[in-house]
Amino acid sequence: MIKVKNLHKSFGKIKAVRGISFEVHDGEITGLLGPNGAGKTTTLRMLYSLLPPDEGEIRIDGLDPAKDAMSIKRTLGVVPDSRGLYTRMSARENIVYYGELHGMSCKDINTRVEELVGTLDMTDFIDRRTEGFSQGQRVKVAIARAMVHKPQTVMLDEPSNGLDVMSTRALRRYILGLKNAGHSVILSTHIMQEVAALCDRIIIIADGQIAADGSAQDLLQKSGCNTLEDAFVHLIGSEEGLLA
Amino acid sequence: MSGLMTVYKKEVRENLRDRRSLFNSVLLGPILFPILFIGLAYFAGNKQQERAEKILEVPVVGAQHAANLVSFLEQQGVMIQPAPEDPEASVRAQEVQVIIRIPEQFPSQWKSGKPAVVELIADPSRRESDIPMQRIRGLLNAYGAQIGQLRLQLRGVSPNLRSAIMVKDVDLSTPQSRGMLVMIMLPYVLMITAFTGGMHLAIDSTAGEKERKSLEPLLINPVPRWQIMLGKMSATATYAFASLSLTLLAFRFAFPLLPTGALGVDLNLGIKAISGILLAVAPVVVLAAAMLTTLASLAKSLREAQSYMGLVFMIPMIPSLIFMVNPMKPETWMMAIPMFSQNLLIGEYVRGESVSLLWLAMSMGSTLLLGFGVAAIAATLFSRPRIVFSN
Q1: Based on the structure, what is the number of domains in chain B?
Q2: I need a labelling partner for A177 at 20 to 30 A (CA). Which of B215, B268, B330, B382 fits?
Q3: Do B11 and A86 meet the contact criterion of CB atoms below 8 Å apart?
Q4: In the structure, what pLDDT confidence band is assigned to residue A244 with cuts at 50, 70 and 90?
Q5: Quick one: CATH architecture of A11-83+153-236?
Q6: pLDDT over 70 at B391, yes or no
Q7: Residue of A70, A78, A103 lying closest to B217 (CB–CB)
Q8: Mean model confidence pLDDT for chain B
Q9: Which of B257, B193, B263 is nearest to B28 (CA)?
Q10: Does the beta carbon of B365 lie under 8 angstroms from any beta carbon of chain A?
């Protein structure tokens, strides 16, 4: 459960986020949609307390990142856009490292890794060094790493970037599984089909502000368009950034 | 603190798998430096010996003016060569190192009992002509002294009368204190090793992690940033310390291989000296790790971090160079100067002196204090949000 009220963040003269407010509910998948440079990543970074907001309020399960950064980090699982795996370590070692950073016991980590190897189908490469992994394999390791401590809130930044059809379908199944298990999931993405297939709520961010907030149905109605893509262009007011 | 340990263990283990990192800490210091040392010592020793034992070939101008002098030189094993046309020019052109010129007035000066002038033509600024010059000068002086003595005896005067003073050298240097090359170079090499040993890890675990984009997810973990930073710093210090120990051990085995006879050097690194040096230099390792991590955290990319490292090299070099150019007698106040005091202490240990506990404590204390200060700066830097972003 995330509540964000009137969030502001500037870098020097550039105002990256200008008054964003929204809510993310448990058992729902919320899509953050927006052109490049709209402020999605900055918003996410404030949510996982990497950046302090200039103004506004964030509550994750009732906790304030400014005061309880450590407690919030324990309930968060983040899969960043860049994945950021350690290439000189095996997939298993990458996951175990994060488990240890979360203060989990050796036994718990091992049980959890076996569980994740099963759900994410990683048997073939779990003990290989991640150097030269395919995009699909890397996403799986990054997800496993983020999920090792069973976080309540899961944030995924462009999770299906560079994945083939089979991997994408497997990923979607996994994300839907998270939702059904009662996690709250935030998805930042460019891909419309993904939004349509997964998201219960869509928040469109443009130019540091919320351009629209609602279900796919709501957005189509509000914009009077037939497809989500058209609705998106209509709601942000330009085609800028869509192709990037 | 478990976060710190986790980060520490991971960095140490991950970098063991990195060839560049291993090369920097294992190969560079411990293998290269001792080999360089032995090589230099052999080269210097051989050259010196070669020049001292080589048959002297000296051109003599005007040999006909002093036939006895020339035959004396020949008896002493000097090969007399025909004179070149322009002696000065051939010395300048480095065709010959030394030329003796006996001027025309030599016979008349000789006969009238005045000091007869013999010219020694050489360029003393060329170091390779030092030894032949010394040898010729020695021979000429010996001949002069011999003739002078004979002249006095002929006139019924004791030759001892003209030696009003006799200087006698009393050599108090121990064999150890003569090992100048090693004495000057060893502190320098060890201080550099304290920095290079952990350099790669410091860069890799900060700027490298930033560049590979793994820093951001790392910081989302519930571990305070200062612990992450200290974990990386400790790993850097561990590598540097390992490198330092290996280098010292390598020198211990390399010293007996040094051509001691040629240099008049007899040094050995006993277990006592090694442990003393390790103890004295350990705080430098902490300081170096703090400096390296701070600088590397400021860099946005690996490349930028590497360019800073040139600067870092200057830091241990400056005190070592000062000591090299101007060797000083260690005084208590000097022990309060980080990185300079270690130069002095290493010298004391290698010379086989016992080092006072006060000196050791002052040196370690001042260096550690500075190290912790820099580490605190690094911790502050690491808490800034900007540290994460590479662009």
Answers
A1: 2
A2: B215
A3: no
A4: very low
A5: 3-Layer(aba) Sandwich (3.40)
A6: no
A7: A78
A8: 83
A9: B193
A10: no
